[in-house]
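Interim report to the steering committee. The following record documents the input for RlpA-like protein double-psi beta-barrel domain-containing protein (163 residues).
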Amino acid sequence: MLFRSSAAICGALIALAISVAVARAETRGVHASAVVDAASGDAVVGRASMYNPFKPGKEEGGPSTASGERYDPSVWAAAIKTSLRQKFGGVLFGVRPKFALVEAVGKKVIVKINDVGPLRPGRIIDFNERTMRHFDPSLERGVIDDVKVSPLAGDYWTPGPVS
């Protein structure tokens, strides 16, 4: 009995340590100068909105993204306008997704571009729920103006806030 209790306590401590490490990693973010240096090509400026195929709406896509990944509202991801597909590395099924630096309302975040879509006029990017909450915590705006999206060189970025 004592062994089982000790094992349970040990497991709980390990789980707590992992969750603290993950929380610290997310709040630390990536240093801004390193990201700005890696921004490749010209930035695209326009409007951003949010998409979630699991919420009702006639214009929402299915749960699979253009890269073949399943839509996940809890990661840092976005869908780029179809006409910008090549600028952001193709976004093709089975190909590793590309990354972009997104700047708006005084905040910066690295997102994984894993989907494309025929967005409404003036919109260049659709955020998943987590990314949209970064820029609009209450989700009341619906659309964010003057969003700057810059493709990032390389394939191994860690998505999340940039400090």
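The chain is about 25% helix and 30% strand. The committee is asked to note this result when reviewing the revised timeline.
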